[in-house]
Structure formats: C-alpha cells, structure tokens
Amino acid sequence: MSAEPSPAIALAGPTASGKTAAAFAIAEALAPALPVEIISVDSALVYRGMDIGTAKPTREELSRVPHHLIDIRDPLQAYSAAEFVHDATRLMAEIRARGALPLLVGGTMLYFKALFDGIDDMPAADAAVRARLEEQAKTIGWAGMHAELARVDPTTAARLAPGDSQRIQRALEVWHVSGKPLSSFHTIKTEAAGARPLSVASLFSLEPQDRAWLHQRIAQRFHAMLAAGFLDEVLRLRARGDLHADLPSMRCVGYRQAWESLDGLYPMASLPERGIAATRQLAKRQVTWLRGMPGRQPIACDAPDATAQLVRAVRERVLGKSI
Q1: Angle, nearest 10°, between helix axes 271-291 and 109-117?
Q2: Residue 322 buriedness (CB in 10 A; 0-12 / 13-18 / 19+)
C-alpha cells in the first residue's frame, strides 16, 4: 500500500548544483501517478527581463511542468521573504487542491527558512535612515559599516561579507528603526507567523562533496551566460532609464558586477573573474545556510548517480516506493 503523499517536497542547493534538471527528473518520475507543479524559491527568478543572468528555465522547460513565482515582478519592485511565504503557502494549497504535488525548488535559503520557521514582520524601509547610513558609509567605508554591524548584530555580521553593502545597510537599518538585530527576526518561530506549512523532513538538499566540482560548474555557467548575451541583457535593463545599481534586482550576483563594469568602476575584461568569484561566494553562503537546516536529507550532487539517488528518495517519501 502506498503512503499518503507528502504535503510538499522541497529541493534546495547552491547555485549551479543542478536543481533545475533534478526538479524535471522528479516531475517525470512521479508522473502520471502524481502530477507535479514547481514553486520557484529564488529571489532573482521573480524578475521579468532577467533571464540569462539568472539561468531562468527556458520557455520549453516552463511548458513541460507548471511553474510558479517566476516573472512576477518588474525589476523596479522589491519582493520580500514575507511576500514569498504568503504566496508559496497559497500556491501549495491550490496545487494540492488540484491533486498535484507542490515541489519547491531554489537556492534562496532565507525564503526556505522563513517558510519552515516563520518570519516576523520586519520594519519597512526608512528612506531617512538609509540616507544617513549611505553618508556614514562614504566616511568609514562598508568594511567599517560591517564592523559597526558586528557590534550591534554579531550573528548577522558573521554571515555577511564586509563588501556586501546592500545587506549590511539593510541590517543596520533594521537595527536603527526597531532597536532589534535583524537576526532576531530570522529566528521567530511559527507561533508568530501562523501554522508551519511544510514538514522539514520533506527537504532534500543537493550538496557537493568536492567544492572544486561546483567551482568548475560555476565558471562554465558564467562563461556560457556571457556567450548567450548576458551583457546585452544588462544593457537593455540599463536603457530603461529607471533602474539603478542599488535596487535589489540589480544587486543580484552577476548583474551587480556587470553594472559596475558598465559604469566604468572596473575594467570590462575583469567581469568574468569578478562574476565567478561573487557566484562562488554566494554558493558558499548557501551551503552554510543549508548545513544549519535540521531534518534535511542531503544528496551529493557531484555523485555520478545523484539524480537517481534523489528520485528514489523522493518517490519513497511521497509514494512509499523507490522504484
């Protein structure tokens, strides 16, 4: 007898770990017994017109399996973890009502954590506080601002690079507006945010055993993005005239480095090296977040049979059989 299907399955992993291909393999393996709909857990894929630099699934891929939370925001707009939790919770209920399995796939670990643990309502952006922080940064630099953050919120400072100006600024803004560290909001449990919508035991994690394997894939993908016209994509975004480098969309890895090169802050020839280095740093942060998530079932994404392992594990979880 088959087990009751899980309310949802989550598939997380660092950038370039093979999540998209793995998600399609899961969907194909479960069909036709259990249709699958994919919910993107990616803070970059929400943006329209940002396709190459986000490694967004192609139109053909999107047509193979229903997808959600892709191309839902203009790059001028923000999209918060709280909005994601609201949207993902609603979508999971709708997908289950259709008799399908919600498959949450992505690498934005804050979204996963917010979905699993809940998240308190953080203070809204405060333009005046942000402007003061910008002026302070001009005087002491972002490394100095990082040191200031370490004084008031050591937990958040420990997971941010000294050059991560956007997140350092936001963490300090939260501190000045609320008097509480940003890390305190990230640890609010579901009692403050509603019932837990997803079982932690449903989290599968693609994690490399050999970091060099992932680094090679990151480099290959960045060069492939450039060959596919990534710079032209960024030029089209700049040509709109209403976007700027401080928007969350334009601070996505790759876009930030391309924008800075086009602004003349760095030689264009250094873009591949800088983009690859930033992507590697992102992957390192993602793996660190993952390893702190209890109940995850890790799969070595660099194993020759990684996809087969994952499919067997998911089938066992949702259908009660591994073949």
Answers
A1: 20
A2: exposed
State the pairing for strand pair 67-68/203-207: unpaired
Pairing of strands 101-106, 36-41: parallel
- What distances in angstroms separate CA 186 from CA 1, 122, 150, one per listed residue? 40, 9, 16
Q: Is the dihedral of CA 254, 256, 258, 261 positive or negative?
A: negative
Distances (CA, A) of 216 to 15, 187, 270, 276: 12, 34, 18, 10
Global pTM value: 0.80
- What CA–CA distance (Å, rounded) separates 232 from 140? 35
Q: What are the residues whose beta carbons fall under 8 Å from the beta carbon of 296, sequence distance 6 or more?
A: 12, 200, 203, 204, 205, 290
Over residues 240-252, the pLDDT tens digits come to 999 999 899 999 9
Measured distance CA(196)–CA(64) in Å, rounded: 30
Tens digits of per-residue pLDDT, 9-65? 999 999 999 999 999 999 999 999 999 999 999 999 999 999 999 999 999 999 999
CA count, 13 A, side-chain hemisphere, 250: 22
Phi and psi at 316, nearest 5°, equal: -60, -40
Among residues 170, 37, 178, the alpha carbon closest in space to that of 101 is found at 37
Sheet holding 297-300, edge to edge: 67-68, 36-41, 101-106, 9-12, 203-207, 297-300
Phi, psi of 4 (to 5 degrees): -60, 135
Report the amino acid identity of residue 287. V
Two structure tokens written together for 170: 């936001």
**What are the φ and ψ backbone dihedral angles of 69, each rounded to 5 degrees?**
65, 35
Q: Which residue do the tokens 């308190």 mark?
A: 120
- The type of residue at 98 is R
Task: Evaluate whether 204 touches 9 at the Cβ level (below 8 Å).
Answer: yes
